[in-house]
């Protein structure tokens, strides 16, 4: 079976027109060059060179083989070049502020071990900003949270990891029913993340579609702090259901549904479609991130089971919005 060394020997003779010149170019002896060419011609069952001509000429069959041999050797060079670049490159990954936690350090550590010469640069920002930076190639990948249903923009690919049910939350003393019409929230004020969070346009669109203006009472980072303020009567909120379930003041909170709406936040690991040689790093991160994200079905069941419990904590048959 032909080898890359034999193809390289044939191309070198075609380029230099002599055995000695080709041997010098490849830093081998002339007898070694002759043996490589004879093996190649024997494998192919055809003469590739006219050795009687001075300089040596390529035969008609040899010209067809020469073009393909050059292509093979160039492809191999690209593979080596990509391997070299990958081993010494940088990889920029973004993580949504909502999910930036110490648990995500483990996947990044594992990928650093898998690609020890890759310099992984991590940044955190709101998901819409991260998606924009993926589109401009300022990032090589990102863990983003997008309201569902959602699809990734053109030119961006990735893996859907799971979804998080979202809860509309009020102070218990507001005494809301379990299900509320959007129009009943005309006087409500909200405790939300600052602008840039993907939930703000979601909530704004939901309210404005019913003729209700979004009024923000407090802008503050972090679900736990928001829930603490809501429990104290500062306003309403929309947060992941899991945050409500584990909050120490959940007894002072009331979860309610907006009639006709089922809010969910989808977690995606995404990267540009044309990532090229860095794609193995993105794939490795995706696999490792998936190991620290609970399964969608399990989480869905846990949250749905929690609805009656939380409604019982703060439900009242009558009441009004703040």
Characterization of the model:
This protein has helices spanning 4-16, 19-26, 30-44, 60-87, 105-114, 127-135, 199-208, 223-231, 241-246, 279-292, 296-314; strands spanning 49-50, 57-58, 90-96, 119-125, 141-147, 156-171, 179-180, 190-192, 216-219, 237-240, 253-258, 264-272. With 322 residues, it is α/β, with parallel strands linked by helices. It folds into three domains: 4-87, Arc Repressor Mutant, subunit A; 90-162 and 266-294, D-Maltodextrin-Binding Protein, domain 2, CATH 3.40.190.10; 164-264 and 301-314, Periplasmic binding protein-like II (D-Maltodextrin-Binding Protein, domain 2), CATH 3.40.190. The strands form three sheets. Strands 3, 4, 5, 6, 7, 10, 11 and 12 form an eight-stranded mixed sheet that branches. A two-stranded antiparallel sheet has the order 1-2. Strand 1 and strand 2 (57-58) form a beta hairpin. Helix 1 packs across helix 3 (30-44) and helix 2 (19-26) packs across helix 3.
Features:
disordered C terminus, Arc Repressor Mutant, subunit A, two-stranded antiparallel ribbon, 8-stranded mixed beta sheet, alpha/beta, 322 residues, D-Maltodextrin-Binding Protein, domain 2, rod-shaped
Classified in CATH, the superfamily of the largest domain is Periplasmic binding protein-like II
Helical proportion? 40-55%
Number of discrete domains = 3
Largest sheet: 8 strands, mixed
Describe the global form: rod-shaped
- Write down the Rg: 32 Å
- In the CATH hierarchy, the third-tier topology of the largest domain is known as D-Maltodextrin-Binding Protein, domain 2
Structural class: alpha/beta
What percentage of the residues does DSSP assign to strands (E)? 15-25%
CATH level 1 class label of the largest domain: Alpha Beta
């Amino acid at each position: 079976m032909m080898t890359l060394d034999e193809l390289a020997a044939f191309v070198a003779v075609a380029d230099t027109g002599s055995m000695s010149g080709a041997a010098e170019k490849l830093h081998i002896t002339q007898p070694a060059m002759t043996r490589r060419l004879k093996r190649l011609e024997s494998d192919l069952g055809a003469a590739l060179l006219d050795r009687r001509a001075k300089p040596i000429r390529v035969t008609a069959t040899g010209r067809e083989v020469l073009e393909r041999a050059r292509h093979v050797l160039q492809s191999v060079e690209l593979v080596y070049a990509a391997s070299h670049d990958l081993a010494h490159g940088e990889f920029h990954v973004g993580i949504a502020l909502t999910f930036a936690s110490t648990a995500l350090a483990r996947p990044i550590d594992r990928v650093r071990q898998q690609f020890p010469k890759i310099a992984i640069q991590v940044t955190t920002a709101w998901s819409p900003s991260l998606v924009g930076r993926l589109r401009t190639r300022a990032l090589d990948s990102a863990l983003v949270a997008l309201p569902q249903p959602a699809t990734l923009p053109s030119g961006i690919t990735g893996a859907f990891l799971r979804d998080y049910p979202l809860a509309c939350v009020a102070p218990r003393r507001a005494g809301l029913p379990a299900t509320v019409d959007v129009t009943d929230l005309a006087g409500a004020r909200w405790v939300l993340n600052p602008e840039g969070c993907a939930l703000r346009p979601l909530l704004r669109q939901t309210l404005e579609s019913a003729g209700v203006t979004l009024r923000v009472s407090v802008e503050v980072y972090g679900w736990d702090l928001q829930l603490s303020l809501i429990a104290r009567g500062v306003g309403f909120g929309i947060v992941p259901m899991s945050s409500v379930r584990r909050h120490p003041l959940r007894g002072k909170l009331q979860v309610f549904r907006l009639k006709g709406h089922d809010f969910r936040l989808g977690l995606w690991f995404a990267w540009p479609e044309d990532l090229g040689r860095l794609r193995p790093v993105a794939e490795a991160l995706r696999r490792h991130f998936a190991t620290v994200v609970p399964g969608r079905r399990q989480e869905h069941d846990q949250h749905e089971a929690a609805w009656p419990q939380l409604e019982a904590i703060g439900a009242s048959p009558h009441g009004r919005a703040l």
